[in-house]
Amino acid sequence: MTKPNYAPRDWQSQPSYRFPDYKSTVLRGPTKPLVTIAASLSELTGPVFGHDAVDPLDSDLFLNAQKNGAPLGERIIVSGRVLDEYERPIPNTLIEIWQCNAAGRYHHDVDQHDAPLDPNFLGAGRCVTDDAGRYSFRTIKPGAYPWGNHPNAWRPNHIHLSLFGPSLATRLVTQMYFPGDPLLPLDPIFNSSPEGARDRLVADFSLAVTRPEDALGYNFDIVLRGRDATPMET
Amino acid sequence: MTRGQTPSQTVGPFFAYGLTPEQFRYPFRGTASNVIAKAATDGVHIRLEGQVFDGKGDPVPDAMIEIWQANAHGRYNHPEDDRKDNLLDPDFAGFGRVGTDTDGRYWFDTVKPGPIGDGQAPHINVIVFMRGILSHAYTRIYFADEAALNAEDPVLARVGPARQATLVAGRDETPGGVVYRFDIRMQGENETVFFDV
Known about the structure:
The complex is a heterodimer of chains A (about 230) and B (about 200). Chain A is mainly beta. Chain A has one domain (about 50-225): Aromatic compound dioxygenase (Protocatechuate 3,4-Dioxygenase, subunit A, Sandwich). Chain A has helices spanning about 25-30, 40-45, 190, and strands at about 35, 75-85, 95-100, 125-130, 135-140, 145, 155, 160-165, 170-175, 205, 215-220, 220-225. In chain A, strands 2, 5, 10, 11 and 12 form a 5-stranded mixed beta sheet that branches. A 4-stranded antiparallel beta sheet of chain A has the order 4-3-8-9, with no helix packed on it. A two-stranded antiparallel ribbon of chain A has the order 6-7. In chain A, a hairpin with an 8-residue loop joins strand 8 and strand 9. Chain A is globular. Chain A starts with about 25 loop residues before the first helix and ends in a 10-residue tail after the last strand. By secondary structure, chain B is mainly beta. Chain B contains 4 helices and 10 strands. In chain B, strands 1, 2, 3, 4, 5, 6, 7, 8 and 9 form a 9-stranded mixed beta sheet that branches. The longest helix of chain B is centred in the C-terminal third of the chain and has 6 residues, at about 145-150. Chain B is globular and about 40 Å long. At the A-B interface, helix 1, strand 1, helix 2, strand 3 and strand 4 of A face helix 1, strand 5, strand 6, helix 3 and strand 10 of B.
């Protein structure tokens, strides 16, 4: 194939499959080397979601599951741009997010944490980036919660994100964290990202994004693999 | 290159109400499902099913599997595939998503993809996510009844004979139709081949 390829997954930025401090990786992460394949139409294409895939309310998690009032917690705006490695915006791409509520409890049947569910908060949303690659969500700041990885283990406040980008090669699932969280250096999932790259997972507080009388603002840019201008030499 | 890639992070155990809400009966509309063929979709309708196993051989009850495939005419529904000789099918987008059940099982109702015409055998692209993997894992499903085309496939050739079998789905004819079985083993002697795409 002569079509330009996407830059490879950068293993100086991406976590390795097995990271023993995060115990679940030990029996689940692949152990054999990945087989590198040349890009074909199979990898250069991917699912396309139009703006009709989302409802405007989908990006407002403060509103989208209300039953008898407002969800509890601190309202926040999370917005930013989806870019590639060459700083080209990625328009019209689907972002899906999910998170726990302000008390640190997920609206999920398996979550056993002894913190209350919020009847007015689901914690799931989605949007499609605009022509400049921009996105914005309003939500509630997620709480920290304990997990069973090691004694007294707590996950820092975080929001899960899933993105497609233009091809199968640009698929990304990640987590966004909040600045100044004392749990960050203690979290093996955060620390699984190579040093030097993990700060890219931390949003910036932004007064410009903050909505007066409504919600604190955070900026979080997401960088997907870029497509080479010239074919790679091997 | 001016911006570093955002690192991948695990999908975690609690994605279902956001990513596969309808399958698990959460109150949110889904963007994708595991039924990707409609009655009117061209081609041979198939059930694709399997189980996901960890390194101890235990089923993985909290994995998410995504598939992306060409239609029966070997055409991807994407602007990059602009070949006019392979027909688009208005009743087939080609993307599916499913969460595994408590026994680690998954299934899709789809159609068998046609060859895309570049020397590769018919295949379905697969992305695997789960708690405990920090980056998603890419693999492919080939079809046991395409032995001649599989023998010429450049990706299977690169994988080599010792591990090719992990990528080939077995075919079964049942009263309900054609079923292909494709298990995913994250580790062990028969660890599925995963790709750096």
